[in-house]
Amino acid sequence: MNRVTLALALVTATAGLAACSAPSQTAIKPLAQQEVSAPDAVKVPAGNTLSASYQGDGVQIYQCSNAAWTLLEPAASITDHGKPVALHYKGPIWVSTKDGSEVDATAVPGASVKHGDAIPELLLKATANRGKGQFADVTYVQRLATKGGLAPAGKCTDGGEVSVPYSATYTFWIKG
């Protein structure tokens, strides 16, 4: 089992346990009633419509190179009110666990909001869509409300790896 598969398995198992042990105290709102608040720097361009908003929980995996930590990849479980709907990994890529559809994306230059205690909020533009299903027509992805995930401070030993827990809200947008 490779490192990414193992990390995703651990993330998925952890998310499943959390969902089982902590029932939601709020009523589930239909997507059209959910509000998505985003800083101006990461707003989606006009002409796109919110398709889905999900919770992401996982790790940011860092590798030590030249005595500094650099991001190797994310590994996260994406859930809808505690139910797994997707996995997120290096690319960045999101793949549906419901229908196998995928979206690859790349960060929009200058479209980020940095936080001192968490990874930045981002706007990402879709670069490829595969399959039919929930991610087939995604045009943009936002990473919002980030918590944790920052690289460790200080020097490190080359070749070392560390996984840092994080969470974020991921919103998926389609043309229209």
Automatic annotation (TrEMBL):
PROSITE patterns named among the record's database cross-references: PROKAR_LIPOPROTEIN (PS51257)
Signal peptide: 1-18
Keyword annotations of the record: Signal
Official protein name in the record: DUF3455 domain-containing protein
Gene source species: Kutzneria chonburiensis
